[in-house]
């Protein structure tokens, strides 16, 4: 299965489970984008330098169906592509909530339409279901993996209302925005 090849990059996993339909498998957690340097002679590594946070991944057999989550910096996109780009195809839904971009845009990469949306606060899952125009009742009685399949199905034929822009052009427009965090100190 596809997620087996991604497993070395799993970090702070929430879950990995099969959906009720045969061949579908989902993962939520974080993915390592840039690994930390080797810390000692035994090959142990320091913490990752960059993570794809709040990652939502859906695979069907060996096909990547959904990839969504948060990039702190658009500059980490090439590293993400090194690890997961081969899975992108025309049938893949890809939504990158990116902290340091000023405006949303779409790019076609390996046949997949990839949406890049600025997000400095909030949860990727909530933003994704809002974008798909889903409500809580759409997930009633479903397990965690089946909820991700529901989101994927809602994006079939979805047309983004964002301008087309290459990632190289977008890299020229990045800003210094940082993720806003709230909570106990």
Separation of the first and last Cα atoms = 41 Å
User: Main sheet: which strands, in order across?
Assistant: 1-2-3-4-5-7-6
Please bin the fraction of helical residues.
10-25%
Percentage of residues in strands? 25-35%
The shape, in one word, is globular
- Total of domains: 1
Mean pLDDT: 93
Q: Return residue spans where pLDDT drops below 50 for at least 5 consecutive residues.
A: none
The count of strands amounts to 7
Q: List the total number of helices.
A: 5
> What series of H and E elements makes up the topology?
HEEEEHEEEHHH
The main pleated sheet reads as: 7 strands, mixed
Write down the Rg. Answer: 16 Å
| Class by alpha and beta content | alpha/beta
Please outline the helices and strands.
Elements: H1 2-6, E1 10-18, E2 24-34, E3 50-60, E4 63-71, H2 77-84, E5 93-98, E6 105-109, E7 112-118, H3 124-131, H4 144-154, H5 167-171
Parallel strand pairs: 4-5, 5-7
Antiparallel strand pairs: 1-2, 2-3, 3-4, 6-7
Task: Describe this structure in a few short sentences.
This protein is an alpha/beta fold and 185 residues long. It is 20% helix and 31% strand. The chain has helices at residues 2-6, 77-84, 124-131, 144-154, 167-171; strands at residues 10-18, 24-34, 50-60, 63-71, 93-98, 105-109, 112-118.
What does this structure look like?
By secondary structure, the protein is α/β, with parallel strands linked by helices. It is built from five helices and seven strands. It has one domain (2-171). The protein has helices at residues 2-6, 77-84, 124-131, 144-154, 167-171; strands at residues 10-18, 24-34, 50-60, 63-71, 93-98, 105-109, 112-118. Strands 1-2-3-4-5-7-6 form a seven-stranded mixed β-sheet. The chain is globular and about 45 Å long.
């Amino acid at each position: 299965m596809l997620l087996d090849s991604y497993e070395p990059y799993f970090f702070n996993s929430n879950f990995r489970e099969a959906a009720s339909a045969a061949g579908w498998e989902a993962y939520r957690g974080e993915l390592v984008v840039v690994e930390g340097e080797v810390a000692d002679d035994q090959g142990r590594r320091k913490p990752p330098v960059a993570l794809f946070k709040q990652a939502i991944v859906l695979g069907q057999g060996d096909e990547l169906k959904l990839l969504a989550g948060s990039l702190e910096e658009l500059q980490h996109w090439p590293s993400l592509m090194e690890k997961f780009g081969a899975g992108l195809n025309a049938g893949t839904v890809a939504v990158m909530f990116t902290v340091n971009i000023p405006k949303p845009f779409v790019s076609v990469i390996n046949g997949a339409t990839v949406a890049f949306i600025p997000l400095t606060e909030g949860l990727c899952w909530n933003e994704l279901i809002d974008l798909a125009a889903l409500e809580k009742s759409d997930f009633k009685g479903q397990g965690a993996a089946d909820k991700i399949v529901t989101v994927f199905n809602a994006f079939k034929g979805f047309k983004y209302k964002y301008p087309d822009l290459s990632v190289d052009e977008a890299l020229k427009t990045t800003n210094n925005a940082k993720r806003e965090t709230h909570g106990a100190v």
